[in-house]
Amino acid sequence: MYDYKDLYVIDFSNVNHYLEIHDVIRESLEFPDYYGCNWDAFWDCLTDMICDPVHVQIRGLEVIEQERFGDTAEKCFAF
Fold first, then answer.
1. Chain-centre distance of CA 53, in angstroms?
2. In the Cβ-directed half-sphere of 25, how many Cα atoms lie within 13 Å?
3. Contact 23, 75 (CB under 8 A)
4. What CA–CA distance (Å, rounded) separates 21 from 19?
5. Is 64 within the bounds of a domain?
6. 29-63 pLDDT per residue, tens
7. How many domains does the chain have?
8. In this structure, is residue 3 part of a structural domain?
9. Which among 51, 56, 21 is positioned nearest to 38, based on CA atoms?
10. What is the 3-state secondary structure (H, E, C) of the chain?
11. Where in the sequence is the domain holding 64, given as residue range(s)?
12. pTM value?
């Protein structure tokens, strides 16, 4: 299902809206087209892809830590 990489890079630097966060996640982690753009779907896809350690580099985290995105950063990286 997944073609594993040594490093996945998630870059939130250009995110302006909440749904763009999930678009960036889907593209960066190469989630399937049926990814539901919510935190339950994020967890399901993330746990589907894990067999060996997955290395993820996060860029632009300060963008989604802004008040307008609420607790999105906490939810995204609580795992």
1. 16
2. 22
3. no
4. 5
5. yes
6. 999 988 998 889 988 888 887 666 778 898 988 87
7. 1
8. no
9. 21
10. CCCCCCCEEEECCCCCCHHHHHHHHHHHHCCCCCCCCCHHHHHHHHHHHCCCCCCEEEECHHHHCCHHHCCHHHHHCCC
11. 8-76
12. 0.75
Paired residues of 11 in beta bridges: 59
CB 15 within 8 A of CB 64: yes
At 30, list the tokens.
């190469």
- How far is it, in rounded angstroms, from Cα 48 to Cα 62? 28
Q: Give the per-residue pLDDT at 12.
A: 92
Burial of residue 12, with CB atoms counted within 10 A of its CB: 0-12 exposed, 13-18 middle, 19 or more buried? buried
Across-strand partners of 8?
56
CATH number for the domain that contains residue 40: 3.30.370.10
